[in-house]
């Protein structure tokens, strides 16, 4: 302690402590448990894209500060992707911004678009950086809780409408949704869009799992709905789509005024990042659709393997339509406290999972849910499933 009694950490961040991922990953190490907590793949993405990064580095492309908005090749590739995939056209020079992963895109968007006292309506449970970034912007989060309904976590549109007040500045949407695996349907998105237009709200939408949808589910970008093009900041990332989460290459697509605002915040966060990797990701975005189809099929098979194992072990399982997480209900196992369950699971079964309650303001709503990641090698998932069989024995 210094002589003053004032704590080092400021008030807006003090509530957040250290993330559960650090605690659970440490537990995995000390117990030798299989870590299905944090969501990163245990195999790298396509070899030719790794080689593209090596080539960029050797050729001296991106080893010095790249342009602030991102290298032109990547901005062009992002724009081409949005056009080819969704029929949405963005000007690579004024409507695309490259960021240090989606994480910086989220931070820069919220810091740029919010005034202290503004309210942000966000889907709960939410990705952990949302709450911290809203707090750093001095704004207030207003959660709308997704609740289980016929095997899927569903958005209650009436609750969303009721959460919006005169102080609401923006809606923070995430689809496909981490941690629940819900993919918002066309009807749900249309209703969100119609409401955002009617109330003249900005929308920030985190679509980093856009390519990870299963069983023929369709990801629809919110920016494509009527009246949304000019009010929506869409966030994408190469980390999840191409299995290079360490490269931290993300992007924002939006109308010029919104991109300029986000860039104003971004330039004072990292300014730029990931130079050579930006070039490699430009090549990744140009891979044929067959790559994505193969990746999706592979992930779906992993989902099915883990989901079946969890069901056999006695969990209630919500089959995810997207992302690489499966949320379970521990009540069929006679448990109700996800925190206690996850702290004990490494000893009991040699597996690490994450209590969904950490993603809730209403902790009691999230208490019985536990999240497992399935973006791991098949043999790792098989071993985890084998170990989980001991839970009841
Ligand atoms: C992983 C993840 C991010 C962060 O993406 P990066 O590109 O690694 O910064 C953002 N949002 C969600 C929902 C995620 O799961």
What would you say this structure looks like, in words?
The protein is 41% helix and 17% strand. Helix 8 links the parallel strand 7 and strand 8 (202-206). It is globular. It has helices at 11-14, 20-31, 47-58, 72-86, 101-113, 128-136, 157-163, 186-198, 238-242, 256-266, 275-285, 289-312, 338-349, 363-366, 378-388, and strands spanning 34-35, 96-100, 119-124, 140-145, 147-149, 152-154, 168-174, 202-206, 232-237, 249-253, 316-318, 325-329, 351-352, 354-355, 369-373. The strands form 4 sheets. It has a 7-stranded mixed sheet, with helices on both faces. The chain is of the alpha/beta class and 393 residues long. Pyridoxal-5'-phosphate binds at residues 101-103, 127, 174, 178, 206, 208, 237, 239-240, 245, 248, 250.
CA radius of gyration: 21 Å
Give a list of the ligands.
pyridoxal-5'-phosphate
The largest sheet, given as strand count, sense and whether it forms a barrel, is: 7 strands, mixed
End-to-end CA span: 49 Å
Q: Number of DSSP strands?
A: 15
Low-confidence stretches: none
Strand fraction equals: 15-25%
Average pLDDT, rounded to a whole number, is: 96
